[in-house]
């Protein structure tokens, strides 16, 4: 492969090996008929439990898309963890590189889902340590074609990205930038693909993804930049500075927007791994994420997807 080609370029699609670094959570979802007022009491219409966490959601979709996925994170030795493990197994996600901790609690996200409009409001509880570089360093990276990182635990993630970026490895890597975190910008130059949230862009003072991507370009001169913007769709900028935009693809009825961004990220990674054009990849990711908004959760997402399915 010549130096000017993207490092992830492949001519024919084959199953790719993808490693994800981030967290897995237990999500408790209370569906309510309208978002409650503060200091009020309401009954949930329904309660569900799911495995959540951005990176593991993205891997669960990539696995449905035919890829071979591994997750490395931290698992607490406590009963709720079994639920997380069972779901990972269901999605054929390998978790052999996880660190097991005694005495911690599985990360939990308490989600209030408004059935009138599909909006989700989330309270997180976290008390586990983050997956760190010494644990990452024990992973045999040779089989992997791509590594996807959640933009958290900045110092440790920087070391992991640097290892992947080293000349002797040059492993393609994407970074999700969902939240404003001190120092997160220092990671930008280390990733091939940056996946920004609307929340992050809005916190920088922008009201649309395209303007934001022009602004952020100088901090990551060589990366593919992507910014999702909810019902407005998403924007992307390729390494040459060309910008593309896609509208959103709303389902007939919005049922559940939880994890739409994680599904969108899977769509982007999948399209790039298949060496599709960025413009096509962007609209396919918006279509897939829009389809997700019409179903609860992400199980069976691809089974119920009318297409276009790219494989
Ligand atoms: P997050 O789930 O992280 O908050 P977004 O809300 O930006 O992320 O959504 C990610 C992508 O999902 C958007 O770019 C869009 O394509 C799609 N999406 C989100 N909400 C809707 C919706 N209500 N209707 C259709 N598509 C949506």
Briefly summarize what is shown:
By secondary structure, this protein is of the alpha/beta class.
Summarize this structure as a short list of keywords or feature phrases.
311 residues; alpha/beta; UDP-N-acetylmuramoyl-L-alanine:D-glutamate ligase; 14 strands; binds adenosine-5'-diphosphate
Describe this entry's structure for a reader:
This protein is an alpha/beta fold and 311 residues long. The chain has a domain at 17-24 and 53-98 and 130-292: Ribokinase (UDP-N-acetylmuramoyl-L-alanine:D-glutamate ligase). Helices cover 27% and strands 23% of the residues. The chain is built from eight helices and 14 strands. The protein has helices at 54-64, 79-90, 133-136, 154-165, 198-203, 209-216, 260-273, 278-293, and strands at residues 17-21, 25-32, 46-52, 68-72, 74-76, 99-101, 108-114, 120-125, 146-150, 173-177, 193-196, 224-228, 234-237, 243-246. The strands form three sheets. An eight-stranded mixed β-sheet has the order 4-1-9-10-11-12-13-14, sandwiched between helices. Strands 3-2-7-8 form a four-stranded mixed β-sheet. Helix 1 packs across helix 7 and helix 7 (260-273) packs antiparallel against helix 8 (278-293). It is globular. It starts with 16 loop residues before the first strand and ends in an 18-residue tail after the last helix. The site of adenosine-5'-diphosphate (ADP) has 20 residues, from helix 7 and helix 8. Adenosine-5'-diphosphate binds at residues 197-198, 228-231, 233-234, 248-250, 254, 257, 260-261, 264, 286, 289-290, 293.
